[in-house]
Amino acid sequence: MRTLVVIAHPDYDNSGTQAFLQASAQSLSQVTWHILDQVYPDLHMDIIAERQLIQQADQIIFQFPLYWYSAPASLYAWLDQVLQTKHEETLPDFSGKILGLVVSTGTDQKQFAAGRQEQFTLSEYLRPFEGIARKVNLQYRAPLIISQFSYLSEQQKMHLLITYQQYLTLKTDHFAQRQTWLIQRLQTLVKNTEAESQLTGIIAALEANQEHLTDLTETLQMLKGEPYE
Amino acid sequence: MRTLVVIAHPDYDNSGTQAFLQASAQSLSQVTWHILDQVYPDLHMDIIAERQLIQQADQIIFQFPLYWYSAPASLYAWLDQVLQTKHEETLPDFSGKILGLVVSTGTDQKQFAAGRQEQFTLSEYLRPFEGIARKVNLQYRAPLIISQFSYLSEQQKMHLLITYQQYLTLKTDHFAQRQTWLIQRLQTLVKNTEAESQLTGIIAALEANQEHLTDLTETLQMLKGEPYE
């Protein structure tokens, strides 16, 4: 899957979150990293070039810090200009493509709820993006939210790295697909490491788990197919 | 009440809706008309000047066409720059001020509902603005929505003109206050018109209605005060 990451951040170079995400994505070959505020400091987009980038991608990701419960201005400049229907060139065909969001917030995610500090959920604040996906026929994917990145422990950051890489390279968030992905990544890594035997053990255990999961799924399907008497 | 109308529209000069609203506001002395895309074509705001405008207003109105279920980029540039907390100057004190929205849509307002074309209500799509008001301590006012302006009849346009003038000059949308406002406007107009006697009759009828309304309110309050036996 080819993924286009459209990043809106007026202060990209000073963002620890964005630096971490960029490092996490570096080893992924099918990912295009596109920082709007750096490519277009004056926010005047090259409409034709942008539409070609969209056309080449299977998944488009809007990646931004939550500013005023929306995205920074550069993403709106992109939307206003690149997706405008008045331009002589026809809009790209979005059907079959996915729209993902990677949104970082300075506030604890728990605060996004009725009666709490931010009053509404992030699903509610991000409705306009759901509307956009619907409008242009993109498949809207559950956003990946990164809250208070600087407070994350090392372990939480490693978990985020995996989740983020999966978000960029997998079409869905299903458990079985994520599990298979982990096994493949481990198999690649194992060749370049000293702890090969130990890792081979972990992979075997994961594969056994995977078979067990498949068995369970089959049993469940069988049970569903047999009516009770 | 002093009202600052902050307008975001990348094609302001070609908008029939905006031309109509500008003409409607022209006779109002306490209204500051502020077209972001014309004052700042490069979207680099004068933060200090903008904060002074805010400080002088009792009501701030964001006026824009709904682009991608949000405002055009210039409003986000304004929010990102003018309301940023990193700037050395302190933010204006928003307490006691009102935030209003005047939003025009190309789609019929009925389509903003579950199961209809736009899926969600405008209240839902505009949540980020409710969040902004809450965040900076502005009082959020129910938005004035203008749907499919070009399809409005002459009578509907006259009604919009009145509603819009009231939105800019009154603090609330209560019926009694709007009625009083109408009487005052008529009394001013009557002096410059030929149909003076006819209009005087209309004003008398409206004033009688107003008294009737006051009577009704008082009766209701009296009834509420007396417990049933």
Secondary-structure map with pairings?
The structure is a homodimer of 229-residue chains.
Chain A: E1 3-7, H1 16-25, E2 31-35, H2 36-39, H3 47-56, E3 59-65, H4 73-82, E4 98-105, H5 122-125, H6 127-136, E5 139-140, E6 144-147, H7 154-169, H8 175-190, H9 196-225
Parallel strand pairs in A: 1-2, 1-3, 3-4, 4-5, 4-6
Helix pairs in contact in A: 1-7, 8-9
Walk me through what this model shows:
The structure is a homodimer of 229-residue chains. By secondary structure, the first copy, chain A, is an alpha/beta fold. Chain A folds into two domains: 3-173, Rossmann fold (3-Layer(aba) Sandwich), CATH 3.40.50.360; 174-229. Chain A contains nine helices and six strands. In chain A, strands 1, 2, 3, 4, 5 and 6 form a six-stranded parallel sheet that branches. In chain A, β1 (3-7), α1 and β2 form a beta-alpha-beta unit. Chain A is globular and about 55 Å long. The relative contact order of chain A is 0.12. Chains A and B meet through α4 and α6 of A and α4 and α6 of B.
Give the gist of this structure.
The first copy, chain A, has helices at 16-25, 36-39, 47-56, 73-82, 122-125, 127-136, 154-169, 175-190, 196-225; strands at 3-7, 31-35, 59-65, 98-105, 139-140, 144-147. The model of chain A has no long low-confidence stretch (mean pLDDT 89). The first copy, chain A, has 229 residues and is of the alpha/beta class.
- Name of the CATH architecture of the largest domain in chain A: 3-Layer(aba) Sandwich
* Percent of residues in β-strands of chain A: 5-15%
Q: Which percent bin holds the helix content of chain A?
A: 40-55%
Q: Structural class per helix/strand content of chain A?
A: alpha/beta
CATH homology superfamily of the largest domain in chain A:
Flavodoxin domain
CATH topology of the largest domain in chain A: Rossmann fold
Q: What profile does the largest beta sheet of chain A have? A: 6 strands, parallel
The quaternary structure here is homodimer
Biggest interface and residues each: A-B, 29 and 28 residues
Count, helices of chain A: 9
* Backbone shape of chain A: globular
Order of helices and strands of chain A: EHEHHEHEHHEEHHH
Strand runs of chain A, count: 6
User: Rg of chain A from C-alpha positions?
Assistant: 20 Å
CATH class division of the largest domain in chain A: Alpha Beta
Tell me the distance between the termini of chain A: 46 Å
Number of structural domains of chain A: 2
Mean pLDDT over the residues of chain A? 89
- Low-pLDDT ranges of chain A: none
